[in-house]
Design goal:
Blueprint lengths: L3 E7 L3 H12 L6 E8 L5 H8 L4 E5 L4 H12 L4 E5 L3 E3 L3 H10 L4 E10 L6 E3 L2 E3 L5 E3 L13 E3 L6 E5 H7 L11 H11 L3 E12 L11 H18 L2 H24 L3 H16 L11 H20 L1
């Protein structure tokens, strides 16, 4: 039985597929399957993979249903106890799969482990050393743009970046899969946050190296689609994962955080999109369920809240 299922969501990413799939072919650990989930690409991605990488199992979706739906379909199709999500615009080190598997096996309470992501075109700089969330309602990648050697120790993180992360499949059955309401953006913060509420951990695996181009599907770091969905999903994430009292506790910070983001995106000419996303976030929150609050989880909520405050300090001053 294969130990790992590598799942690659793809939407019109043919320009990157040879790089990521060739690097998987060269792994020094081979007990894994690879599943490409195609979100209705129109660029010949499926034909290219079928013709050049016949060992890849392909799940074809008829339209672009977003990142969350794509990775869920991959998880459903997987046959291994561990699922490793990988962006299509990446290349991985030859020991990547082995290191990811070793990391999650080494932590019995781990829901996920996040790789050390390095900028593809600036290989002396980090792209992501674990995802974090703070009391301002800001999600951020630890170490982004810093020297590659800044974070070289394995440690607990807030959540894993789903662009290169391994998960225990059986835990999804308990806490729920990626929330398809998110479509794309912050879905990894949401599922990792949810796992924390249930008592699981997320870890950083610095020996697992990934070279990430960035914005391979969306096309740019800032655009109207990403701006609107990011603010929309942030409102939904807060509503879904924070009990009412915790929302009230963080409300002053959240007002400041969202206000600063409005000003930031207004300067970039996308203020209306950001505000529209906030409004849409409240709309979708009203029709979806919160994570059910249990008194037995009170200590976990307290620990998460302390991290939200600490992450705020880190974000502003580190």
């Amino acid at each position: 039985m294969q130990e790992v299922s590598v799942i690659i969501p793809n939407y019109n990413g043919m320009a990157y597929l040879e790089g990521v799939l060739s690097s998987l072919e060269q792994q020094d650990f081979q007990n894994f399957e690879t599943i490409l989930v195609d979100n209705g690409s129109a660029d010949g991605s499926v034909a290219f993979v079928m013709g050049n990488f016949p060992w890849v199992h392909i799940v074809e979706l008829p339209d672009n249903f977003g990142f969350s739906r794509a990775v869920n379909e991959g998880i459903y199709a997987s046959r291994a106890p561990y699922v490793l999500l990988l962006n299509n615009d990446t290349e991985v080190d030859k020991s990547f799969v082995r290191e990811m598997l070793a990391s999650i096996k080494g932590h019995k309470k781990a829901f996920s482990c996040s790789a050390r992501m390095i900028r593809y075109h600036e290989r002396n700089k980090l792209d992501d050393a674990g995802n974090y969330y703070c009391a301002l309602g800001w999600a951020f990648a630890r170490g982004k743009g810093k020297d590659i050697h800044t974070y070289e120790k394995e440690d607990r993180i807030f959540t894993s970046c789903a662009g290169a992360a391994i998960y225990r499949k059986k835990i999804f059955e308990k806490i729920g899969y990626f929330d398809e309401e998110h479509f794309a953006y912050l879905e990894d913060i949401d599922v990792g946050y949810r796992a924390r509420i249930f008592g699981y951990e997320n870890w950083y695996a610095p020996k697992a190296l990934v070279y990430h181009v960035g914005s391979g599907t969306s096309g740019s770091r800032y655009n109207q689609f990403k701006t609107r969905y990011s603010s929309r999903n942030n409102i939904y994430l807060i509503y879904k994962n924070m009990p009412a009292l915790q929302i009230l506790l963080n409300l002053p910070f959240l007002i400041v955080g969202f206000g600063m983001k409005i000003l930031f995106f207004t300067q970039k000419g996308m203020g209306r999109e950001y505000i529209a996303g906030i409004k849409n976030g409240f709309q979708i929150s009203r029709k979806n369920k919160k994570v059910k609050f249990h008194l037995k989880n009170l200590g976990r909520y307290g620990k998460i809240q302390l991290e939200l405050w600490w992450n705020l300090i880190y974000r502003l001053f580190a």
